[in-house]
Amino acid sequence: MSENFERHAYDILIIGSGGAGLRAAVAAAEGGAKVAVLGKSLLGKAHTVMAEGGVAASLGNVDPADGWETHFYDTMRSGHFINNYKMVEVFAKEAPDRVLELEQWGAVFDRTPEGRIMQRPFGAHTFRRLAHVGDRTGMEIIRTMEQKILTVNVDVFQEITATKLFIDNGRVAGTVAYYREDGRFALFTAKAVVIATGGWGKAYKVTSNSWESTGDGAALAFRAGAELVDMEMVQFHPTGMVWPPGVRGLLVTEGVRGEGGLLRNSEGERFMEKYDPQRMELSSRDVVARSIYKEVQAGRGTPHGGAWLDITHKGPEYIKRKLPGMYQQFMALADVDITKTKFEVGPTIHYTMGGIKVDALTCATNVPGLFAAGECAGGLHGANRLGGNSLADILVFGKRAGDGALEFIQGHEGTPKVEEAEVQAEIERVLQPVGQESGENPYALHEQLQEIMANHAGISRNGPELEQGLQKMLELKERAKSMSAPGSRTFNPGWHSVHDVRNMITLCEAIIRGAIERKESRGAQWRLDHPDELEEYGKINFVHKMEDGEVKTYTSPVAEMTAELQELFQLGAAPGIAKSGKKE
Amino acid sequence: MAEEITLSVFRGDRSGGREQEYKIPAVPGMVVLDALHYIQAHQAPDLAVRWNCKAAHCGSCSAEINGSAKLLCKTRVDDYTDEVIHVRPMHTFPVIKDLVTDVSWNYEKLRQIPAFQPAIKAPFTLHQRDVDRIQEFRKCIECFLCQNICHVLRDHSAKDAYWGPRMMIRMAELQMHPLDTADRIDLLKGSAGIGYCNITKCCTVVCPQGINITDNGIIPLKERVADKYFDPLGGLVRKMHK
Amino acid sequence: MAQSAETIHGSKSKSGAAWWVEPYLTVLALGLFGVYSLWLVFFQHTGQFQNYLSPFFSPTEDWGIKVLPALWVLWAPLLFRATCYYYRKEIYRGFFHDPMACGVPESRRKFYFGETRFPFIWTNLHRWFWYIALVVLVFLWIDAVKAFIFPVAGGGSTFGVGLGSLIMLVNVSLLTMYSLSCHAFRHLVGGGSQKFSCADGSPTTRYKLWNTVSRWNEKHGLFAWVSMFSVWFTDVYIRLLIYGVIHPVRFF
Ligand SMILES: Cc1cc2nc3c(=O)[nH]c(=O)nc-3n(C[C@H](O)[C@H](O)[C@H](O)COP(=O)(O)OP(=O)(O)OC[C@H]3O[C@@H](n4cnc5c(N)ncnc54)[C@H](O)[C@@H]3O)c2cc1C
Ligand code: SF4
Ligand code: SF4
Ligand code: FES
Ligand code: FES
Description:
The complex is a heterotrimer of chains A (584), B (242) and C (252). Chain A has 584 residues and is an alpha/beta fold. Chain A is built from 17 helices and 19 strands. Among the domains of chain A are: 237-349, Flavocytochrome C3, Chain A, domain 1; 432-534, Methane Monooxygenase Hydroxylase, Chain G, domain 1 (Up-down Bundle), CATH 1.20.58.100. In chain A, 63% of the residues are buried. The model of chain A has no long low-confidence stretch (mean pLDDT 94). In chain C, the strands form two sheets. Chain C has a two-stranded antiparallel ribbon. A two-stranded antiparallel ribbon of chain C has the order 3-4. In chain C, 52% of the residues lie in helices and 4% in strands. Classes of the chains: A alpha/beta (584), B alpha+beta (242), C mainly alpha (252). Chains in contact: A-B, B-C. Chains A and B meet through helix 3, helix 4, helix 10, helix 13 and helix 15 of A and helix 1, helix 2 and helix 3 of B.
C-alpha cells in the first residue's frame, strides 16, 4: 500500500534548528535562496537553549591583550593538536564578528563598566573571553536567532524528524521526514542540504544533554556516504549534579568555577593543586574531569561519589546575580542553597567533539551538496573542546555552511531527483514498528546502549573492555532490527525513539572503533593501558566510512600548520601574555 | 525506600480522553517528568509528553499538575505527599495527544511582532543599568504557561483580540531596548489588544522564570499607550523636551 | 473532572487559606469602605474637631458649599483609587470574577472587553487622577501640620502633640507612600525613558528616581491597603471625638 506524502522543493534544506541550523538559514536566505529549516522540537527549544556559560570570542573587552592568535593557541592546545588547524584559524578570526552581529540582531549581553560586552574567564582560556548573559547564554543566542529568522524569508518546520538522505548520481537530493504530531510524511527535495543536528550525548546515561542529542544527522550523513572523524573523542564535563538521583548528570555550569568556585575532596583539600597547579579549577575539562574521577577512585570522594564545589565566599548577592540559574536549579531540585553551602559535583557527558568530516572553509562534506555545521561536525575541537567554543562554533560555521551551500547551488546546475519508489521504501521502513506489540522495546534498548557506553567506553578506557563493548554493541545492532512501538502514529514517543536508538547505535560503533584504534591517551581519550600521549598518534585522525552497511575505520593525516601559525607555539607562552603583563 | 506514588495522567487526543492511573516506584529527587518517563519506559510507551532539557531551560514541558500550571521538569514528586498527582495538558491550547498541546498560535503571534530596529551599528555602548530591565524579560523560556493561565485566553477564548502576556513582554523587551527605534504602540493598542489585560496578574504568578510580567512589562506598556492616546498634554511636553 | 477547590491554581495562598477567601475579603473591605464613604457623604457635614480635620473633608468648607461637603473632595481620591492598577486587580477579581483566582473557571459571559471599552477604558486616565490626588495630598499635609498647632484658651496657639496629631501624620505619610509608589508615577518619573545612562556612563537623574520609585512600587499593594485603612481609622477617630464618645489625648 502506498502512503501519501507532502512534497516540498527548496534550494537549500537545513536539518536542525539549533544555533548552527538557524545561523546557516539566515546566511542562505540572505543570499536569496529558498530555504527550509527542519527541527525535531519546537522552534527555540533546541539543545542550544541549554548552554549556560558563554560564547568565546577574542573581543578583548576586558583583557585588551586578547586576540585571535591567543584564541587559536588555546584551542589548538586544548585539542591536543589533532584539530583541523584551518578550521581553528577561521574560527578564532571570525568569532568576534559573529558575536557582535548577534548584538546587532538584538541579543543583550551582560555589560562591562564601560558599557561593552562583558567577558568572563573560563577553563583553559588564557584571557577572559566568554561573552555571556548570566548563566543563560545559549537561550539568548537561540532567541536572537529565532527572532532574526522571522525577518528573513525562511520556512520553519517544527517537530519533524528527518530519517534518510537521498542521493542522486552521487549528489545529495533531499530527505524524507515525518511530523511527530501525527506521523504524516513529507519529502523535501533540495539542491543542497546542511546538517546541523547537534551531538549524541544521549548515548550515555549520565549526561547533560537533552533528548534531541541522538546524533540523527551524523548518522544520516554517514549512511549517505559522508565520513566521520575523531569519533572517539567524547567530552566529560567535570561538573554535573550527582545528587539526588533524579537529576544526576544535569550540568553545573563551568561559570561557577569561572566566577571563582573552588573544588575540594572529602578531606577538604583543593586537589587541583596536584593535577594542574597553574590553572587549578580552570584547567581544561578533560583534566578536571579526570582529576575528580581519580580523587573518587582514591577514596576521597563525597558521599555520593563526586567532589565538593564551593562558591559561598563570593557572597549571596553576587552569586544570585551572576549565577541565578544555578542558584535556582539547586534550590528547586536538590534543596541546596549554593550561597550557603558547598555542593557535590561529578563528571557528566557533555559534548561530542567528533562528527562529520568537513571542509574548513565551506563546511562541505565528501558528498557533493551535503554540508555540516555545529556539534554534528568534527575537526574544530580535536581531542577536547574548550568551554564557550561550541557556541562560537555554531555561529561561525553555521554561517559558513549557509554560505557554502549557497555557493554550491550557484555553481551547480539542475536539481537532483528522488525516485518515488525510494521514498515509498523508506516510509515503509519507518512505519514498520508502529502498532507492533511484540519486538524489542526501544526504551530498554536505549538503556542497554547507555550501559554499554558507560561501562566500556566511559571516562577511563582500556583495550579489552573496548573490544567487549564492541561485541555487545554489534549484538545490540542486531536486536535493534526488530524494535516495536505499540500505539498509533499520533505523537508516539516510543516510535520516535526507535529512530533515535538506531542512529545512536551506528555512531556508538564508530566511537568504540575509534577508541580501540587510538592506542594512547589524548584529551578526552584516556586509555589505562596506554596512559601516555604518543607523538605518532598526534599526526593522525581516525576516519570512519560506511561501506556496504559496515563501519570501516581508516587513518587520515593531520594537516600541518603553516610556519606562521607554528611560530605562535614557539613563544614560550600564550600570544599576548607578554603584552598583558599577566602570568600564564 | 521503594515507596509507591500514584499518578493520574490525562490520556487522549483531539477527540477527547480521560485520566488514567499509574503506580510507579519513587526515587529521591524525582520530578514529575521522571515519573512520566518511567511510565513510558515500563507501562505506556506511547504516552506523549513534550520535553527537551529537563533543566527548566527550554520551556517544553508545560502542563497542569493538580490544577496548577507548571513545568513538569521542575515540579518534584515529593511536593505531593499522600496525594494522587493529576497531570493534565494545558487547558488553553488544543490537545494533540495526552500532554502535548498545539501551541502554534503563539508562534504565529511572535512572527507578527516588529523586530528589533537598532539606530546604530554594533558594537553598542550600553550599560548594565540600561539593560537590566530588558534582560528580565529576555529570561523568558517560552513555556507559554502565562498564555495558558491568562483568563482572557483561557476563559474568554479571545485569542483573536489579545495576544497574551508572553507577547506583551516580548514587545516590552523590544520597546525598552535603549537603541530600538521601531514603534509598537499602535500595535499594542490595536490588534495586540493590551487593553484586554485587566492586570489580574495570574501570568506573573505562574511564570517559572519569575518574570514580573504585569508590573514590569504590561503596566509600563499600558502607560506608554496612555502617553500616546490618553495624555495629549504629556505628549506635548515630551515633544518640546526632545 | 470536577475541580475541587484544592486542585485549582492559587488554591492555597501563602497563609494556606482557600482560593476564594481573598476575593471575598476584598469585596467585604472595599464594600464596607464604600458604604462608610456614602454614609459620610449623605449624613455627615463636618470632619473638623478642633485642629483635627478628617481626610474625607479636606480641603474644607472654604468653598462655601454647604451641600454634601464630603462629596466635593471625595470624588478625587475615590477615582484615583478606582483607577489604581492595584485596586483594579482586586476589583476585577473580587467584584467581576475576571478571574476570581488563577485558573478558576469563569462563568462564560458572552462579552469581555477588558479595558478596551467604556467603562474600564477610563482607567487609562489614571495619571490625571494622580495629579489631582497630589493636590489633595498637599492639603492633607497642611492639615497634618495644623494638627500639631493647638488653640490656646484665650487666643493664640501653641505647638503640641496629641494622639490625633500622630494619627494624622501617620495617615498622610502612608497616603504619600501610596501615591509615590504609583505605577503611573513610576512611569512618568523615569520608567518611560529608553536609556538610563548619560553619555559619560553615569546614571541619569531619571534612572535614580525610577529606581527608587520602583523599590517603593513593589510594596504598592501594601500601601494601598494600609493607607485606605488609615484614612478610615483617622475619620473614625475624629468622628468619635466629634460625637464626644472619646476624649482627646494630649501628650504635651
Ligand atoms: C547543559 C549544556 C551547557 C552548555 N554550555 C555551553 C556553553 O556555555 N558554551 C558553549 O560554547 N557551549 C555549551 N554547550 C554546548 C552547546 O550548547 C552545543 O554544543 C551547541 O548548542 C550545539 O548546537 P547545534 O546547533 O550544533 O545543535 P543543537 O542545538 O543540538 O540543535 C540540533 C537541532 O537539530 C534538530 N534535529 C536533530 N535530529 C533531527 C532530525 N532527525 N530531523 C530534524 N531535525 C533534527 C534538533 O531538533 C535541533 O533543532 C552546552 C551544552 C549543554 C548540554
Ligand atoms: S495580568 Fe493580564 S496578561 Fe496577565 S494573566 Fe492577567 S489578564 Fe492575562
Ligand atoms: S513569560 Fe514566563 S510564563 Fe510566560 S512564556 Fe515566558 S517564561 Fe513562560
Ligand atoms: S524539559 Fe525543558 S523546561 Fe522542562
Ligand atoms: S497604580 Fe495604584 S495609585 Fe497608581
